[in-house]
Amino acid sequence: MSQSPAPRTGASYAAAGVDIEAGDRAVELMKEWVRKTRRPEVLGGIGGFAGLFDASALRRYERPLLASATDGVGTKVDLARRLGVYDTIGHDLVGMVVDDLVVCGAEPLFMTDYICVGKVHPERVAAIVKGIAEGCVLAGCALVGGETAEHPGLLGEDDFDVAGAGTGVVEADTLLGADRIRAGDVVVAMGSSGLHSNGYSLVRHVVFDRAGWSLEREVAEFGRTLGEELLEPTRIYSLDCLALTRTTEVHAFSHVTGGGLAANLARVVPDGLHASIDRSSWRPAPVFEVVGTVGGVERLELEKTLNMGVGMIAVVPEGSVDTALTTLADRGVDAWVAGRITERGTEATGAALVGDYAA
Q1: Which intervals hold domain PurM-like C-terminal (predicted)?
Q2: How many whole angstroms separate alpha carbon 313 and alpha carbon 265?
Q3: Which residues contact 135 (CB under 8 A, 6 or more apart)?
Q4: How far is CA 162 from CA 17, 96, 119, 154, 250, in A?
Q5: How many CB atoms sit inside 10 A of residue 348's CB?
Q6: Rounded to whole angstroms, how far apart are CA atoms 274 and 347?
Q7: DSSP string for residues in 257-282
Q8: CB 39 within 8 A of CB 142
């Protein structure tokens, strides 16, 4: 006589790998950090289905234009996971989003984030949000909401990714961009804090696959470990750029991210003009030379992948240069004249780097 199978326990969300209680705990832990980003226009707190921002604050604008941007931080999250450091990657996320917004002259108003994990570790999620909140404070914007999603079976227990979206506002008649640039304008470069959040697939290939280095390796050129150098947070320029627009005339900004300095500057150079950037006006930080040397990466390949020490560009008229440099210096931003805008001669419209880097 056959035996009946033993009764099976009913399926549940927890049995499938999703821990709702851990998610609730993460929300509680992050609340204090989100509160630190609050602006007067923000209504309510986290926990609702949507973040609320009082648009009546925009009445002071004659013709307000809303700007939006979204981004992530790419494979840099892998380094945060390997090192077990979760409270800096949020700076990178905010920088990638708000510094795209400010390029057109927009003031970042608020951000939302999306954190996807294989398993919710409340303290880790809260640490990620802490970094995002700190970045928002540096950018002057509010963190009005977000989402934490647990994807067991799709991601490993320690795997995660982050993304964010931001909204800003700019007065229509102060909108910055290519149409304002003229021959004779000056290119002012603002120093980066390091690699920022671009080119990490190349960097990881070089240091891990080709060189076989560990993140704990002390690198003399850096004066710290490889992991500490690679996890250096992205510099956030939004308030610095807005300060420039208040103190002097600015024609355009360019956020130097994926594609490198020349390609991103070319995005704001109008037809018929050319931007020439003098490499001898600065010396890239050691991390760029190390990646190139260790990986045998050609200079042009480095320059189209990494920022090479320049995280943001301001294009200003000749008469604004001194004020621009003074304003940035007062704000602790390393800045210098890196090039000029000229009428197109034999060069193609766009931007190019010339000369050799400073020794």
Answers
A1: 182-346
A2: 7
A3: 90, 91, 92, 93, 94, 95, 98, 233, 236
A4: 20, 12, 14, 15, 33
A5: 9
A6: 7
A7: -TTHHHHHHHTTPPTTEEEEEEGGG-
A8: yes
Closest CA to 101 of 55, 166, 52: 166
Stated as kind and residue range, the H or E segment containing 337 is strand 335-343
- Residue 88, judged by CB atoms within 10 A of its CB (0-12, 13-18, 19+), counts as buried
The two three-digit tokens of residue 232, written as one number: 């250096």
| Mean pLDDT of the residues in the chain | 91
Alpha-carbon span 318 to 240, nearest angstrom: 19
Contact 193, 307 (CB under 8 A): no
Q: Collapse the DSSP code of 193 into the 3-class scheme (helix H, G, I; strand E, B; otherwise coil) and give the result.
A: coil
Q: C-alpha distances in angstroms, 166 versus 11, 108, 140? A: 39, 7, 12
Q: Give the tens place of pLDDT for each residue, 44-53.
A: 776 667 888 8
CB of 206 within 8 A of CB of 294? yes
Buried b (16+ CB within 10 A) or exposed e, 35-58: eebebebbeeebeeeebebeeeee
Q: Which of 135-139, 149-153, 200-204 comes out lowest in average pLDDT?
A: 149-153
Q: Which is nearest to 256 in space by CA: 228, 231, 275, 280? A: 275
Q: Tokens in use for 49? A: 């289905």
Over the stretch 10-54, which tens digit does the pLDDT of each residue have?
654 555 555 566 666 666 766 776 677 788 888 877 666 788 888
Q: Cβ distance 331 to 212 under 8 Å?
A: no
CA-wise closest residue to 98 among 143, 36, 60: 143
Find the range with the poorest average confidence among 56-65, 145-154, 331-340: 145-154
The answer, as to whether pTM is greater than 0.85, is yes
Distance CA 271, CA 197 (A): 30
Closest C-alpha among 314, 295, 315, 319 to residue 305:
295
Q: How confident is the model at residue 111 (pLDDT cuts 50, 70, 90)?
A: very high
The separation between the first and the last C-alpha atoms of the chain, rounded to the nearest angstrom, is: 88
